[in-house]
Amino acid sequence: MTRSVRAVAIVAAAGAVLSAGVAAASAQDPDPAPTTTSWAAVDSPDASAGEDLTELTRLSDEAGALGEELHLARAELAVAHAERDRRERDAGVAAGRAALAHNNASRDQSLVDHLATRRYRIGETGGVRAAALAESPRDLVDRLGTLQRLSGATTSALDASRAASAEAARLRDDAALASEAARTSAGDAQHRADELDRRSEEMRMRIDEVRRRVDALSDAQRARWAGGPVMPPGYVAPPVDSVNSAALRVALSRLGAPYSWGATGPSEFDCSGLMVWSYAREGKTLPRSSQAQAVSGAPVAMADVQPGDLVIYNPGATHVGMYAGDGLVLHAPTYGVPVKLERVDAMPIDGIRRY
What we know:
The chain is of the alpha+beta class. It has helices at 3-19, 47-121, 127-133, 137-215, 219-226, 243-252, 271-280, 290-293; strands at residues 298-299, 310-313, 319-325, 328-331, 340-343, 349-354. It has 8 helices and 6 strands; from the N terminus they run ααααααααββββββ.
């Protein structure tokens, strides 16, 4: 069967499931035994072929885990850049305030100097000298009044100058701290960017290796690598009664879609990308990485799991799928394995989150 014919058959099967109201086969075992994940099913009469697939499984798992870590690193880098920009703005504002305070302090000091000069020119050394210099009783009253006003103004101006100088010094300290914080934040952002570049190159090499090995598999090996059908016989999609079950229905429409690292649809996906795309179609925004998805939303016990809940797998939350009901999970497994339904307990469950 050609690839295009297989794709048509997969889509047709998925459409039949989504429109069905009852199971097509009632003789199905009501509680089938758990199976391993498709890309981990390496049992083979040929021991060397099994060893090849075991090694490929390890490489694929490592590439998938690194891919999810890079999604998280990119999100953290965006946050670091935003923090750097905020701190640089804060430093600029603080520097402007410090400059304004310095100008105010200089202005107040000039006023103090001006008032002191005036007091000197009119001979303010006390009332006795004012009386000696006065040309008449009226002149004496005017001189004493002027001296009193100048004394009060000088005292006020001196207080204002001291306060402005202290404020200017405080704001200069604030500006220096803000500038240092901005430099630190910029350095952190650059370090994250450099580390992301390094790990992205590592990711590219891992992807190339996995692709090379999968593409070199024999037909028999490729069939074992892909595992069973994308959808177990008799599966019926749960009714749509919430945003979560609606997101599941959207995700089910992509049964058989190929896996691609970093892809978020609509024709190719990685594991977290399928979750993001499906919920986005229903108006909900999910974090981009499986690690971030594992700590967002609300935690759910396995006994309370519902269709549309996200099932987080493996220590480190390196994989994610969507609970599809009937003890099944819908997920994008790895390169060479299409989006499919498998037993929810086929991999070590790290947690369940509801959005």
